Amino acid sequence: MKIFLFLALISSVILSKELALDTLLKEYENSASLYKETKKDASGMLIVYSREDLDAMQAYSLKDVLKTIRMSNLSVSNIGTLQLKKSGQGKNAAPAIKVYIDNYELTTVLQSNALDMYANMDIYFVDHIEIYQSGSSFAFGNMPGNMVIRLYSKNPSRENSSSFSIGLNNKSGYNLRAIDASTFGDDYNYLIYADTKKINYNEYNNKGYILSRDMLSSQAHFRIYKKDDFDIEIDAITTDADIFSGLALSPIGGKNKKSYGYINLTKYFDTNIKLSLSTSIEKKNMSSIDDKGLHFYDATVSKSFNADAISNTYKLILEKKIINGNSDFLIGTQFQRNTINIGSYSSGSLNPKFGADKLDIYMLYSEELYNINKNNLLAISAKIDHYRDSISQSHTDYSARIGYISHLTKNLKTKLFLNTLYSLPTIIQTSYAAAVFQVNPKLEDSRMKIASTEIEYIKDKNKFITGYTYKVSDNTIIFNKNKKTYINLKETLYFNRYYLRDEYRLDLNNKFVFEYYSGYKDHEASPNRGFLLQIFTKIDNFNIYNELVYRNGYKYNYGFGDIKINAGYDYTSSISYEYNKNIQIKLKGENLLNKAFKSVIDPRGLLNVPSVERKVFMNMEYTF
Amino acid sequence: MKIIILLLIAIVTFASDTVHFQSKILEKVLSDISTPKKLKIWTDDIKILNELKDHKVLNMVNHICDSNLVIIKNKKHLSKDCKADFIFVLKYNLLNEIPNSFGAMFWKKGRPNIVIIEPRINKQNISISKDLEPYLEERVW
Prior knowledge:
A: mainly beta, B: Rossmann fold, globular, disordered N terminus
């Protein structure tokens, strides 16, 4: 803590000296930041991680960003995957978080949430990240969700380079990354990226049984496009991880192997029409072997479980934009087919039941952005979705949203959004899951009504933001541990949350961010309060970054009596040195206090594990 | 068309800020070089040309044939009939493609950069101020 305070003090008093032309170049870089082109203020409550932020944070993987997001907790599951839960949510919650890479919404089917696959992805090829909370605009055309995470890849016309990076850490983990991005011909852009890494974690001894979640992972990404003409995006990711505690608490073996890939083709026509075609494939193989036996939902017990399956999605999107006077109107339609092919499913004497193996989704959505005058914008969007599955169940549901954005003065901006939206049960809840719980094909959509407001005040070097969200949830999907399945809760749930954020920019290279949030709900099964402190400092060729993420302590009862989880303090510090224009050397430590927020693995409270462990990374980057 | 949608305003503001700083950098570079002839400047980047056209110090002209220094982002816009004495480019690879270009402003690894090629300015009798010395390079990579 003393080191942190010392660095904070240094940050506040030392300013770097720069040449006038360097200052102009930096101002140009800031003014041309790509997030200014892509961010959509009218689309929700927005948090932006610019390229400058991500570089300074030494955010190697997406989890480095996820752990800092307000009103959410980065948790680790019993099978070792990283999951982003909303404040207060418990172990079994499956929040509807939608993830995009450029134009494409990741369509993982076998995993309830794309972050199960992508939370650990490297973001070396990512320029900036936008996070829309409290229900985003339906103009994104995504499947229903109340948080949208958009990753934008680096712009090849700004890269014009090839880079190679090698990283090592004190847990004997490594990563290798390479990227090449440039332009050719008549404004054609391409980006090629590949990485491979080994992530090692601490092993946990649970009464003589060793829990490991070490992981090997590789990813490749390719994009070629011409602005306003066409766009081709291809991505493939694969992970092979130890099963951690698996489906019980006495593991003696098991693996969680996953892979996912997609290709997305987009064509832009002169008449403001956009056409996209895409397909994806996902493979999952999970095995869990437990010394004391796995307790399946039909009360049978087996030493092992093994399942593998493949899913595919096919998607077609057609959108048209009409700009007329003060009106900017978008109408879009989508068709998506999800299929599952179950390979093996070995679950002892249990006779497994599965839900539908095919789901067709027809979507129609529109958004009107109407400028009342130059300082006031009205945003209205609606979406209607029709679902038809292979066991002849069909239903239709809708979402609607009205937003009002006003620049009250030059310095003061407000946003107000009223949303009604639904959350679709995941395939894991309805059709295909590990045998420790039973799928429930009869599960219905849950409905949320959200009112949210935000005020932003900018004065000189200071930007202050405060926001409030009130949410009512009906038909909420919860896990019923007695029935060992997911059910719709009849009771209505109420939530409210507020946040305060202050960004103070001392100069072009030095800034402070402080953010605090607090939420209220009836049952808190994870932290509901937290703060984030970030200090960005540049001294000559050194970039120094300090970060403290706090999550409050709480008590919860998973059926074995109250368990108490202590407050978490995750302190990250990093320094990078630009040796010359080609070489950068980086050093980073995360969870340095070893007091980061912990997730509950054993519901009796006997084993709690931090999603971010204490690690020190060293990285070297070479640019050609 | 009277489109004043906030989003569009934001995009327009973003674009004009970008051109403003781009022009400021060019203004600084061109003010820090001395040539045997008084400079008459033309660029194929219309936004920069518009931003700098009323500049008090830089002498901007509307046609390439009236200029002796050109700022080029597309090689096709160089004229065979009206050869410029001095060429500054807006893409790094143009330094290779146009052997008599003496400097560049370009993006690399997400950052804007300036480079002045020392042997070329020496050959063209261009002298530079001390402020530009950190941007000198011996050769084009």
